[in-house]
Amino acid sequence: MMNNGCVVVGGGPAGMVLGLLLARGGVRVTVLEKHSDFLRDFRGDTVHASTLTLLDELGLGERFAAMPHRDVERMTVRLDAGEAAVADFRRLPGAHRHIAFAPQWDLLDLLATAAAEESTFTLINDAEVIDVLREHGTVVGVRYRDRATGAERDLRAALTVACDGRSSAVRAAAGLAPRRFGVPMDVLWFRLPRERTDPDGVFGRLSAGRFAITIDRGDYWQCASVIPKGTDAALRAAGIDGFRRDIAALLPWTADRLAPLTSLDDVKLLEVELNRLRRWYVDGLLLIGDAAHAMSPVGGVGINLAVADAVAAARIVGPALRSDGGVPLRLLRRVQLRRWLPTVLIQGVQRVIHRALLAPALAAAPGPRLGAARLPAPLRLLRRFPALQGLTARMVAIGPLPEHAPAWARRPAVRSRTGR
């Protein structure tokens, strides 16, 4: 006998959305989360318009609205030649004409709380998956270590779904290796104070040898400094003073706000990867999100795609799991076929941006002004025809193939516990 209809490895956005949806369909589902809680800084905090719509469909929109978050309506980039709008979310269709930035741990707590209201849902923290279980060539669950006690346990299921990110332990245990695409950069994340008189929104700043993004989080700026791939060690060897000088040179308005960066321990490295599995499944196992296709941070769309994967997976495999039967390979194949084109399309756009814009900019020596004479042609086009900013906004905030909750997982709106 199987202990579960489904075991989901990884309690990130994809894993928690999948667990919630399946549990609402009556599937016995267990989510294994390696950490003891969701409190990890500098995770992707973007909640896209399509995800906000999904929360509405699940009856959780009002709960999310009561959480601390920041709505953003525009994305702009500033080059030495001037400023241009990249995406205008006010041009989106539907109720959510913005994207939101919220601490990911708050969103995950919201999803976990909603899922815990279903009798078939279980969340196990401190559960580090160390292997997959196989019988006659079929994956039938996982072995995990309780990080609090060191004890090892087996958890069997009709279907195992890996949502454990770009360094997926399940993927490694299953012997699957993704195709890797070269990337020119890594990203350093840090925070800076935000003044009440600062403008709202998301801003990019690109100059020769330097690129930074500042994200309005209400009382602080979440900042990303994009650096050439593999240069983090040299940057850290130069010390915090050199890092602060580089940031002040690129973002002069931050010069008087850099004191809170007291050491490079305040600066977190994201090693950027762009990869994709050729096949997202084997008998008894499905991989989605970053475990199947790690995305570049360009556009901030990785979470959007991972959540969409989870919704598609729940809709396609949920009925089979609800019947207490196994999940045939043809259904796992359907999940990949459904999500393959959006993934390839977005990764293709990211590779073009890497190659045509970011790699040349990061390779240039600081000093000469990048594009000082005029903006690049794509940005000039966006400036001249503002309606195009709606297309870029749709690609970022909704994606090429948005997914909607199946009817059996939807609920009426549920107010937050604060009554707001």
Q: Quote the average pLDDT.
A: 90
User: Biggest sheet: strands, sense, closure?
Assistant: 8 strands, mixed
Label the structural class: alpha+beta
The percent range for strand residues is: 25-35%
Low-pLDDT runs of 5+ residues are none
Q: Kindly report how far apart the N and C termini lie.
A: 45 Å
Overall number of strands: 20
| Number of DSSP helical runs | 11
Helix content: 25-40%
User: Could you tell me the radius of gyration in angstroms?
Assistant: 22 Å
Q: So what's the overall shape?
A: globular
What descriptors fit this protein?
420 residues; alpha+beta; eight-stranded mixed sheet; seven-stranded mixed sheet; 11 helices; 20 strands; 33% helix; globular
What does this structure look like?
This protein is an alpha+beta fold. Helix content is 33%, strand content 26%. The protein has helices at residues 13-24, 49-57, 61-66, 104-116, 169-173, 232-238, 240-250, 302-322, 329-363, 377-384, 388-397; strands spanning 4-9, 29-32, 46-47, 70-72, 74-79, 82-88, 99-101, 121-124, 127-135, 138-146, 152-162, 179-181, 185-193, 202-207, 210-216, 220-228, 268-270, 274-276, 281-282, 285-287. A hairpin with a 2-residue loop joins strand 9 (127-135) and strand 10 (138-146). Helix 1 (13-24) runs parallel beside helix 4 and helix 1 (13-24) runs parallel beside helix 8. The N and C termini lie far apart (45 Å). The mean pLDDT is 90.
What is this structure, in a nutshell?
With 420 residues, this protein is of the alpha+beta class.
